UniProtKB/TrEMBL annotation, chain A:
It is a peripheral membrane protein. It comes from Streptomyces lichenis. It is found in: Cell membrane. Residues 22-270 form the ABC transporter domain. PANTHER family: DIPEPTIDE TRANSPORT ATP-BINDING PROTEIN DPPD, OLIGOPEPTIDE TRANSPORT ATP-BINDING PROTEIN APPD. Belongs to the ABC transporter superfamily. NCBIfam families: oligo_HPY (TIGR01727). Keywords: ATP-binding, Cell membrane, Membrane, Nucleotide-binding, Transport. This is ABC transporter ATP-binding protein.
TrEMBL record, chain B:
This is Dipeptide ABC transporter ATP-binding protein. It comes from the Bacteria. GO terms for molecular function: ATP binding. Keywords: ATP-binding, Nucleotide-binding, Transport. PANTHER family: D,D-DIPEPTIDE TRANSPORT ATP-BINDING PROTEIN DDPF-RELATED (PTHR43776:SF7), TRANSPORT ATP-BINDING PROTEIN (PTHR43776). It comes from Streptomyces lichenis. The keyword Transport applies. Belongs to the ABC transporter superfamily. InterPro entries: AAA+_ATPase, ABC_transp_ATP-bind, ABC_transporter-like_ATP-bd, ABC_transporter-like_CS, Oligopep_ABC_C, P-loop_NTPase. SMART domains: AAA. Residues 25-276 form the ABC transporter domain.
Length: 353, 373
């Protein structure tokens, strides 16, 4: 069922099948301190109507990747290499005018903080109408009707009067609903949700997540869902990509990655999270150390300074050679499949309860 | 007032060990109303934000009380009143038998060293112009404490205790990562050997992998030094992991308080049910868990709903809920110390219901379409 497996086996032949396909993406920023390798050789695919979850800590390159997909980086200061193919169209080399036609139309984004992503100067209605008028050539009246329809759909009470309100008159949950309505104005085929519920309370988060899921069923959009919360991902995504230091370290379906994780970083993430149903006396097992600087990432596997299992690998391969991420269900780690299996069953699984 | 029911004395972390102990901190009907001024040309008080509107709870020595709730429910304000950074509008705070509700600066001085605080944001709570040594040392200087072996030695010990290198004594906060900074904050809170620490969202600004480091550190501190904690957080899983007893707040009131086990497995208040069911879980086979989706956001604390404050979002609300405010009492069948403020409590179970509770109109409409189409 996963495209990941299908396309990666023979990337050249079947690549068009995936709706969005990112190949060997590298994003670098020049700063005063040196070159930041924010994304370093990342490949993934998203199928129509499916949700790809991307998890990782802050600074792992999840947001940068998705801003790149929509061409939102300043091209003068950012060095972007690799291919981004959306529905057969190469985006990395596309001129700005092409990207403008695409943004808010075929591909839309839901940002983390709706208060900073919405302009305080314009009414919510005007901000909703703008992309519809621009992309569809609709009149003001048509755009208004469409906006009210979308506001109703996402559950804003009294949309006719709320249309003329400013963002500050909305509560946090309502602003996020308005952002979702805005992203859905032109029936996008790709929706990028960058931590859409991180700023919200847990009961509101549950409403928004269910709303997104139901809307996806109705609109059939592909969604890239970025978050640091594995619980949210478990609820939302079909496929999962775990990122660390600008690279994908593990990939597979959500079920595969969460139930039989096979990268030490994923093990670490899962065992450092307290659960509502876990054993209370079981101590949390944090990942030692802190994420590496992307100015000067560690040689070899970027996780090796924090990894408890690098001793199991012969010839200190972990510090010298970067482990590749095989196609399909895979983890970028030098441990052999047998070693991973033993460690997971004996040490990790008991911790997860 | 009906909510003046205080907690029974004999409940503690483990009822056996804590029985008959005096509470370290007792809060009765504590209120904080922030005035709103308006009008021209003379500004007058036109209303009040009723951030905390009558809460009662107790913290026993060595116990950890968790305080959970959504943003704006008054949990941080409660923490600030307990440390007396704010003076309550009404009510009473008793710390080891002494009333500190309206204590003056001078009267508070000896108590301040016993109640310490750990702040949420490790970036803004450390002075960037002071070295780590100075930061941790200053509480001792202010309180004129001279530990044996000198203050510097004590600071180095504290650094070691919280898992930092004592040689980092002369470094500045910017040289540390978020998790390490939070450790500095913990070391500072421990410098005066407090009896009570108010931890206001101590890990919510940290990355997932770092959160566990700090939670473990706090747990170690609590176990080894026997410090009581008022642990304020919005993350139910972390509160469960850390607290012996848990109080749930909604719009300035405590709606339910119980020992950890009861609150997480046999909650009675509908809001507690809604909160627990909203937590996204990694476990993929959660079919057995109930599903409750509330509508809208928390109402404004400027004009909270009459009667039960949760009634505007509650699926069980009836006329009585609008007129009578439910008292925080022990409902029959609940364990000692499990108090709930509800007229129509839910069944004590978090198992899936026959029908999901979906209050959100948009969600309900979409789901109806899907099941029909």
């Amino acid at each position: 069922m996963s495209t990941l497996t299908k396309t990666e086996d023979t990337p050249a032949a079947t690549a068009p099948e995936a709706f969005l396909s990112v190949r060997d993406l590298r994003v670098r920023f020049s700063t005063e301190d040196g070159i930041v390798k924010a994304v370093d050789g990342l490949s993934f695919d998203v199928e129509r109507g499916k949700t790809l979850g991307i998890v990782g800590e802050s600074g792992s390159g999840k947001s940068v990747t998705n801003l790149t997909v929509l061409g939102l980086h300043n091209r003068k200061t950012t060095d972007i290499q690799g291919e981004i193919i959306l529905d057969g169209q190469e985006l990395n080399s596309a001129p700005e005018r092409e990207m403008e036609k695409l943004r808010g139309n075929k591909a839309a984004m839901i940002f983390q903080d709706p208060l900073t992503a919405l302009s305080p100067y314009y009414t919510v209605g005007r901000q909703l109408s703008e992309p519809f008028m621009k992309h569809r050539g609709a009149s003001k009246k048509e755009a208004r009707d469409r906006a009210i329809e979308m506001l109703t759909k996402v559950g804003i009470p009294q949309p006719q009067t709320r249309f003329d309100d400013y963002p500050h008159q909305f509560s946090g949950g309502m602003r996020q609903r308005a952002m979702i309505a805005m992203a859905l104005m032109c029936d996008p085929e790709l929706l990028i949700a960058d931590e859409p519920t991180t700023a919200l309370d847990v009961t509101v988060q549950a409403q928004i997540l269910d709303l997104l899921k139901d809307l996806q069923q109705e609109f059939g959009s592909a969604i890239i869902f970025i978050t640091h919360d594995l619980g949210v991902i478990a609820n939302m995504a079909d496929d999962l990509l775990v990122m660390y230091a600008g690279r994908a370290v593990e990939r597979g379906t959500v079920r595969e990655v969460l139930q039989t994780p096979s990268h030490p970083y994923t093990w670490g993430l899962l065992s450092s999270m307290p659960r509502l149903t876990g054993d209370i006396d079981e101590e949390l097992v944090p990942i030692p150390g802190s994420p590496p600087s992307l100015l000067n990432p560690p040689s070899g596997c970027p996780f090796n300074p924090r990894c408890a299992y690098s001793g199991h690998v012969a010839d200190s391969l972990c510090t010298t050679e970067r482990p590749p991420l095989a196609p399909g269900r895979a983890a970028a780690c030098h441990l052999t499949a047998g070693q991973k299996q033993t460690i997971f069953v004996n040490e990790i699984k008991p911790r997860l309860g | 007032m009906s909510n003046n029911v205080t907690l029974p004395e004999q409940q503690g972390p483990e009822a056996g060990t804590a029985a008959t102990r005096e509470p370290l901190l007792a809060v009765e009907n504590m209120k904080m109303h922030f005035p709103i001024y308006g009008g021209f040309p003379i500004k007058r008080k036109v209303g009040a934000v009723r951030a905390v509107d009558g809460v009662d709870f107790q913290v026993f020595p060595g116990e950890s009380l968790g305080l959970v709730g959504e943003s704006g429910c008054g949990k941080s304000t409660t923490g600030r009143m307990v440390t007396r950074l704010l003076e309550p509008t009404a009510g009473k705070i008793t710390y080891s038998g002494r009333d500190i509700t309206h204590a003056k600066r001078r009267e508070l001085a000896p108590i301040r060293s016993e109640i310490q605080m750990i702040f949420q944001d490790p970036y803004s709570s450390l002075n960037p112009r002071q070295t780590v040594g100075t930061i941790i040392k200053s509480p001792m200087e202010i309180n004129g404490i001279n530990p044996p072996g000198g203050r510097e030695k004590k600071v180095r010990e504290l650094l070691e205790l919280v898992g930092l290198n004592p040689e980092h004594y002369n470094r500045f906060p910017h040289e540390f990562s978020g998790g390490q900074r939070q450790r500095i904050g913990v070391a500072r809170a421990l410098a005066l050997e407090p009896k009570l620490i108010v931890a206001d969202e101590p890990v919510s600004a940290l990355d997932v992998s770092i959160q566990a480091q700090v939670v473990n550190l706090l747990q170690k501190v609590q176990d080894e030094l026997g410090i009581a904690f008022l642990f304020i957080a919005h993350d139910l899983a972390i509160v469960r992991h850390f607290s012996h007893r848990v109080a749930v707040m909604y719009l300035g009131k405590i709606v339910e308080v119980a020992d950890r086990e009861s609150l997480y497995t046999r909650p009675r208040h509908p809001y507690t049910h809604a909160l627990l069911s909203a937590v996204p879980e990694v476990d993929l086979d959660t079919e057995h868990k109930e599903r409750i989706r509330l509508a809208g956001d928390v109402p404004s604390p400027i004009s909270p709903p009459s009667g039960c404050r949760f009634r505007t979002r509650c699926w069980k609300a009836q006329d009585k809920c609008a007129t009578d405010e439910p008292p925080l009492v022990q409902i029959s069948g609940n364990k000692e110390g499990h108090l709930t403020a509800c007229h129509f409590p839910e069944a004590p179970s978090i198992e899936a219901r026959v029908e999901d509770v979906v209050m959100d109109p948009a969600l309900a409409a979409l789901e109806k379409d899907h099941t029909e189409g």
